[in-house]
Amino acid sequence: MRALIAVLAALLLGACSSPAASGPYGATSAPMSQVQTLLGWDMTLKNLRWEVDHVLIDVTAKLSNADAPHAAPSDLRFGIYGTPAHPIEATGLGSCDALGELTPTPLAGAEPDQLNGTVCLGPLKERSAVRGIYAYSPADRIKDTTVAYGAAFPVGLAPINPYDTGLMLTTQGVAAFRADGIPLVPSALGDPKAFSGNGYMVLNLSADAIAAQYRDDAVARGGPLMLVAGPTAPMRGLGPDCLAAGSSVLILPEASLNSVHVPTSLCTHGEINAALLYASVSVVGTHAAVWTTSS
C-alpha cells in the first residue's frame, strides 16, 4: 500500500510540475495564466483584454537562473497567435507607447531579474482572430539553422530555393525612402545624390510552406522559423509603415490551418546604401512559447 501511495504521489507531483506541452510548429504551449520557461525566463501571460482595437496582455517574468544565459529583456518580442490577416507583433518594452495613459503600467524591468507590466499588440479589429499570444527573441538562433538571402531595392528577394529551409519566400512589393521621408523610385538608381545619408526599405513578403512538412521540420528542429531583416542601424525619420513592420517576424500560423501562408512585412534601415541595396533576409530556427485562450 505504501508503495502504491508513493507511486501515485510521484505521478501527481510530476503532473503538477511537468514542462509546457508541445505546441504548434515546435513551440511550447500552455493556457493563459500558466508559467512557461522561455529563453531563461519563467514567464506568465494573463488577463487578455482589448483597448482601442489593441490586444493587451499582462506579463510577469523572472529569471530562472540569473547566472545562466538568457534573453535580454529588450529582445523579447510578442505576437498574436491565431488567424489575423498578417502577423501582429511588438517588442514588449515600449509596445504600449502609442496608447499612452490607456496603459498605466506598460511592461518594464523594475529589477534586473524581473519583468512586469502590460504588452500591447495591434491594431486589430477582428477579435475572433485571437487564439493566444506567443513570445520569442529575434536574437535566439537554433544552431545550424540560419540561411540568409540578399534583398535589394527595387526587386526585393531574388527567387530562392524552398528546399533550403522548407519555406518559400516571395516578394510582393518593395517601398524605399530617404530619411527625410522622400520615397525613391527605380529611376533613382541612376542618381548618386539619391543614395546619400540614411534611409529605409519595407519588404512585403509572402512566406509559404506545406503545413505537415513545416510542422515536422519545426518539431525536429526544436522550434518554428523566423525571418530577420538587416541592417537595422538606429536612425531618425522612420515612417509608420517601417515601425509597424519591425525587422523580424515569427512564422507561427494557427495550427489548425491547412497550409502555411503568412503575408508579412519587414523593414531595413540605416545608411541608405546598406539598407536598400545590400540588405538581407535571414530564415532562422528559434525557440518560442504560446499561451492559448480557452475560446
Automatic annotation (TrEMBL):
Alphabetical keyword list: Signal
Signal sequence annotation: 1-20
UniProt superkingdom: Bacteria
Keyword match Signal: yes
PROSITE patterns given in the database record: PROKAR_LIPOPROTEIN (PS51257)
Descriptive protein name: Uncharacterized protein
Organism the protein comes from: [Mycobacterium] vasticus
